[in-house]
Structures are given as C-alpha cells and as structure tokens.
From TrEMBL:
Family that this chain belongs to: Belongs to the DCK/DGK family.
Organism expressing this protein natively: Xylanibacter ruminicola (Prevotella ruminicola)
Alphabetical list of InterPro entries matching this protein: DCK/DGK (IPR002624), Deoxyribonucleoside_kinase (IPR050566), DNK_dom (IPR031314), P-loop_NTPase (IPR027417)
GO molecular function: ATP binding; deoxynucleoside kinase activity
UniProt key word Transferase: yes
Superkingdom of origin organism: Bacteria
Protein name, as recorded: Deoxyadenosine/deoxycytidine kinase
Positions bound to ATP: 7-15, 180-182
Length: 207
C-alpha cells in the first residue's frame, strides 16, 4: 500500500509522515530536499535555476515511485511527483521562470514517467494558511527558506487547492492544519488516525 502526505512548504508533512510511520509500522520515504544541489541557488536566483531544480526533483520523485512500486511494505511518502508538477512546476512557469521550450520538455518527460506508475492508495492533504506556514518555516530555521515571499506561498496554496480539488484523480483526505498540533497534542494525532482508519480499513464512521 502507498500512502502520501501532500502540502505546502511548512505545512507539517515530514512531521506527520514520521508520526504515522511510527504508529502504523509503515516505511517512511522523504524527499531529498537538503540534498538537492540546486536548492540554495534556486532561492538566490529563481529564474536562472528553476528548470534545473524541477528536473532534479522530478528525477528523484520518479526514482522513489519505482522503489515504492517494488516494495512489499506499506510506504508513507512525504510529497509526491504530482505536486512537483501541478503545483511547483506550474507555479514557476506562471511566474515566468521557465521558457515554453523547457516546460514542454519537462512535461513530456513527466508524462512518459507517469505512464509507468499508479496513484497512491490515499493522499493526505495538509491544508494550511500562509501565516501558519510562515510561523512553521521560521521555527525550523532553514536559511534558504527565510527569504521566501508571502506571495510565493500564497500562490502555492492556490495551486495546491486547484491540484487537489480539480486535477488529482485519486482518493484524498483533507486535513485543515491551522487548528491542529499533532506533534504536541495526542488528541489531534488520534483524530487524524481515526480518519485514516475509517478511510483505509472502515473501522469508524467517516467524519
């Protein structure tokens, strides 16, 4: 089984992935953010490094999908290849950071990749407001994230909603994150677990 956790920068994806992996005994898989050799360059000069960054992420996410499809264990994944395309890549394109030629090349590559894999069994969408995201980003203190503009985060939020509610064809569970603290409040985590149990195993009524 393949479970994925989706959400904007600072929404709590990695934290929830770790906690659910521990609770269910699932194998966690995290995207290689800190190992991306283009990330710091990208935040310094988005226009110059967007294509390089997106191709690297696409390559890594496709490699993850192949590994997930071959695994005999249940995998819970932090961010999917679909978000990389329909949220981050589309946002970079709309900002004028990719040429039509680069975009066409990228999308052709993505379409060939995606024909070889299937959708996750469940996509958990952590939906959060921009102030909530900013607070989390500031708390974790990654230097390359501190210069992000509010408009950038808002644009990503809008694209996430469009992706989840209008483009994604798989099963989705939306979790409104602003009023939850599943890291420090066991009741909040239990509420999420109850919903997952209901969706995947039919143990409780859906709420």
């Amino acid at each position: 089984m393949h479970i994925a956790v989706a959400g904007n920068i600072g929404s709590g994806k990695s934290t929830l992935t770790k906690m659910l992996a521990k609770h269910y005994g699932w194998e966690p898989r995290f995207e290689a953010v800190d190992r991306n050799p283009y990330l710091e360059d990208y935040y310094r000069d988005i226009h110059r490094w967007s294509f390089n960054l997106e191709i690297y992420f696409l390559k890594e996410r496709f490699r993850d999908l192949i590994a997930i499809s071959q695994s005999e264990h249940t995998i819970i994944q932090d961010r999917t290849i679909f978000e990389g395309v329909y949220v981050f890549m589309e946002n970079n394109r709309s900002m004028g950071n990719l040429s039509d030629r680069d975009y066409a090349t990228y999308m052709e590559l993505f379409e060939q990749m995606i024909s070889m894999v299937r959708l996750p069994d469940l996509l958990i969408y952590l939906r959060a407001s921009v102030p909530h995201l900013v607070n989390n980003i500031q708390q974790r203190g990654r230097d390359y994230e501190q210069s992000m503009q509010l408009e950038y985060l808002q644009n990503l939020n809008e694209r996430y909603d469009d992706f989840i509610y209008h483009k994604y064809q798989g099963r989705v569970m939306t979790i409104e994150k602003d009023n939850l603290d599943f890291l420090h409040n066991p009741k909040d985590l239990a509420q999420i677990i109850d919903r997952i149990d209901a969706t995947l195993f039919g143990l409780f009524p859906n709420q």
